[in-house]
Design a protein that fits this description.
Oligomer: single chain
Helix content: 25-40%
Number of strands: 13
Length: 674
């Protein structure tokens, strides 16, 4: 086992007095030398340029618009300190109680290089896209000394670039009927990558060896970026770490945006959530551009805490994101590039609440309910999905894996399949190391290790706690495999332990774990068989719904599970949203589910397609004997079915009119109901 002959006390970041100047298109910038001395394995030296503008500040009329190239400047521009984060929750972004600076003037990037790269002008480049649920965090979340130690130093000689992009309503806001600039955050990333390609030679980087890397929301943005026709040829490799393949919609975020605009007086209170005219959309955006950034952020944070709406994920805009991801992945309509991607073995476990229940009947009911929500809201054969889901995840503690299987593991295989070609390689991994201990600031105490972002302590330093001597060895090994991929297109940790490329047939992956000698298990086959066997069934096709419950405009596991679990416990399990809106959303979603079930059953009755078989209903678990022959239905039964269908149709009509009255508050609607 590795033995240290000295005692580590604390991490020190030593800026050198030496200033380094570089000429780029916009003018001269001045960075600084940084000595990373925190690791007992040795000091590393790098050169940092912090706060380089890659776009014109998105202020005034440029708010809610695609980024524009930066303007030039006279004299020497100091780039010695991080710029403020983009407008966001300061506590969540900086992960400290008193937060840190945020600003709408935030479209800056940071470059970390070294003397070797500056002299040789041929180093590989890694552009890092931060995570944060599309709502918070920043390039400032990455400590300069950790980036220098893990990627610039140790003779790895990678030029690292970290970027800011607009968040929340500033980066993803849209109205229904909006035909203007959308998915602005993705266009920020596009502008940043183009800027890097134009300027990275001045920092010693090779523009033809660029890897885009991201974790969590940053991984999702990386995946969407590489899949877009707008990015073709701009990057050459990608790293996708714990990337959730979320369900996307064309109208995602429009209800939250409408709520915020209404609260700020930029839309009439009775505007509702229907399609807005082009003129109304233009006037609303013009009004929002005249609101201060602080007021707009305050309205967003109020919405997050007090309303039943959710804001965040990108949407299918037809320009940057041209189609639903599951569709273009299954059809392999991507621009394949070499890819390294993987997950932790216990990402979020959002469905763990089911197996935590002590009562068997309650566990069964909760699983049925979750399967029905997912089935009826996402799939074109909801009854078939619900039956299969219930049967597949009902045994033992399997239900706890349902959400991660859906969002992380099955999605990773879809991405791997799409990018694995004769000319491109995919390297898949599963991080299973459970020994981080105090080195990781655990923020989900009920989720076992290693959970979401736990491996970041050994790469980008996020959520890092108190490191022990062994953690620095693991940091060197784990960050090394990513550095190897960036530099050589092959993450193999050594000549003795090769990392074989992924194939769709065998689903090869590398297990990342460490014994007391820091040896890793290495190659295995059949990546997350449990997830793939269920979620990759050809019969499970999504319906790409665009009509949701009154408060929502897409389904993500969070806006499904948080209301359920908060209702069950009688308090909010969401650190940002209050209990009252979550409990209200629970009832709203249950009503929506019942409406979908009624609609589907009516349709099937009219088609004569409903028969007997294994079935589990919400509120009761009813399992009939398998293999039982369907009984012959006589003419009288058919008549009864038709009568029953008519009654159900009248019920749907009544519910529709009631919703019309409640949400539109129309006098004509009330008269119609009477």
């Amino acid at each position: 086992m590795f033995t240290f002959l000295f005692v580590y006390s604390f991490a020190v970041l030593l800026p050198s007095a030496e200033a380094i100047q570089v000429q780029i298109s916009g003018g001269t910038i001045e960075g600084k030398v940084i000595n990373a001395t925190y690791s007992p394995l040795g000091n590393q030296t790098g050169i940092a340029f912090l706060g380089i503008p890659y776009a014109e500040p998105p202020l005034g009329d440029l708010r809610f618009r695609k980024p524009r190239p930066p303007t030039t400047w006279q004299g020497i521009r100091e780039t010695n300190e991080y710029k403020p984060a983009c407008m966001s929750n300061i506590t969540r972004t900086y992960k400290v109680a008193n937060g840190g600076p945020v600003s709408e003037d935030c479209l800056y990037l940071n470059v970390f290089t070294n003397d070797y790269c500056m002299r040789n002008k041929n180093c590989s480049v890694m552009i890092v896209v931060h995570g944060g649920a599309f709502l918070f965090e920043s390039a400032s979340a990455f400590a300069p000394d950790i980036l220098i130690n893990n990627f610039v130093g140790q003779d790895r000689n990678i030029v690292v670039v970290s970027i800011n992009y607009r968040l929340g309503i500033f980066g993803f806001g849209q109205f229904r009927g909006d035909s203007g600039d959308r998915n602005i955050a993705l266009f920020d990333i596009l502008q940043a990558v183009k800027f890097v390609r134009n300027e990275i030679g001045s920092f010693g980087g090779n523009k033809n060896r660029i890897t885009l890397a991201g974790h969590s929301a940053g991984a999702a943005l990386t995946f969407l970026f590489s899949s877009s026709p707008l990015s073709k040829g701009l990057i050459h490799q990608q790293i996708i770490m714990s990337g959730p393949l979320a369900n996307m919609a064309k109208q995602a975020n429009y209800k939250a945006t409408t709520y915020i605009a209404t609260r700020l007086g930029c839309l009439a209170e009775d505007v509702g959530f229907g399609t807005l005219s082009k003129k109304t959309v233009e006037n609303a955006f013009e009004c929002l551009r005249n609101v201060s950034a602080d007021e707009l952020l305050a309205a967003e944070l109020y919405m997050v805490q007090n309303s039943t709406h959710y804001l965040g994920c990108p949407h299918v805009d037809g320009e940057f994101v041209t189609d639903y991801p599951d569709r273009f992945l299954s059809e392999k309509r991507v621009y394949p590039i070499s890819t390294m991607l993987g997950t932790t073995s216990a990402e979020l476990r959002e469905s763990q609440y089911i197996t935590d229940l002590q009562n068997t009947v309650q566990r069964e009911k909760s699983l049925v309910n979750l399967c029905e929500h997912i089935g009826y809201e996402l799939f074109d054969k909801p009854d078939e999905f619900a039956k299969k889901c219930y049967a597949y995840y009902r045994n033992g503690s399997d239900a706890q894996f349902l959400s991660d299987d859906m969002e992380f593991y099955a999605g990773s295989v879809e991405i791997a399949n799409a990018h694995s070609t004769a000319s491109t390689k995919v390297f898949l991994y599963s991080y299973t190391y459970t020994g981080a201990g105090l080195a990781f600031k655990k923020y989900m105490p009920t989720v076992p290790s290693p959970h979401h972002s736990e491996d970041l302590i050994y790469t980008f330093g996020t959520h890092r706690g108190v490191m022990a001597p062994k953690d620095y060895v693991i940091e060197s090994i784990y960050s090394g495999v990513f550095a190897n991929f960036v530099n050589f297109g092959d993450p193999s940790p050594s000549e003795q332990q090769k990392w074989r490329p992924y194939s769709e047939k065998n689903r090869e992956y590398f297990e990342v774990d460490f014994d007391q000698n820091f040896t890793m298990p290495g190659m295995k086959t059949g990546y997350y068989k449990r997830a793939v066997d269920f979620w990759s069934q050809p019969s499970l096709k999504k319906n790409h719904r665009e009509q949701w419950s009154p408060s929502l405009d897409t389904l993500i596991i969070t806006n499904l599970v948080d209301p359920i679990l908060s209702h069950m416990r009688g308090y909010s399990i969401d650190t940002e949203k209050l209990y009252e809106p979550l409990n209200k959303l629970f009832y709203e979603r249950e009503q929506f589910l019942n409406e979908l079930k009624t609609e589907w059953r009516t349709t099937q009755l009219l088609k004569g397609k409903i028969g007997n078989g294994k079935w589990a209903r919400s509120g009761e678990v009813k399992v009939e004997e398998e293999g039982k022959e369907e009984e012959e239905e006589g003419g009288g039964v058919n008549i009864l079915l038709i009568i029953f269908a008519g009654v159900l149709l009248l019920g749907i009509l009544y519910i529709s009119i009631t919703h019309f009255c409640l949400h539109v508050r129309s006098r004509e609607g009330y008269q119609l109901l009477k």
